[in-house]
Design brief:
By secondary structure, the protein is of the alpha+beta class. It has one domain: Alpha-Beta Plaits (2-Layer Sandwich), CATH 3.30.70. Helix content is 38%, strand content 26%. The chain contains 3 helices and 5 strands, in the order βαββαββα. A 5-stranded antiparallel sheet has the order 2-3-1-4-5. A hairpin with a 5-residue loop joins strand 4 and strand 5.
């Protein structure tokens, strides 16, 4: 099983709920949205990939990419960072889907 933790800084709760719903449509994963009490703190979405490997990681990466790039008008109002097991943060805003997939799979390998 692979666990990816993703931090979201977004201007709306609705945006986070939409991302959560899109992720929950992917088979073989479990998604938990943890909303902060402090509205200035990032929300955390924990994604457990149970099966599917690269294909499932690619589907997750596509949802994250789409969440960042769906509306160019609000581009500066949201940020998504992948948090590795070691606690390192990778800003995925400038990455394409394949690069995000590699980051997710790299987290599994401990890279």
């Amino acid at each position: 099983m692979l666990t990816a933790n993703v931090e979201f800084l977004s201007d709306t709760k609705q945006h986070l709920l939409e991302i959560e719903q899109h992720l929950k449509q992917i088979h073989h994963i479990k998604v938990d949205l943890l909303e902060p009490l402090d509205q200035q703190a990032p929300a955390l979405i924990s994604i457990d990939i149970h099966r599917g490997g690269e294909e499932t990681a690619h589907a997750v990466a596509q949802v994250l990419y789409d969440a960042l790039h769906a509306n160019a008008a609000t581009q500066g109002q949201k940020q998504i960072s992948l948090v590795t097991i070691e606690g390192d943060r990778v800003d995925i805003e400038s990455l394409d889907v394949e690069q995000i997939t590699s980051v997710i799979l790299g987290a599994e390998a401990g890279e």
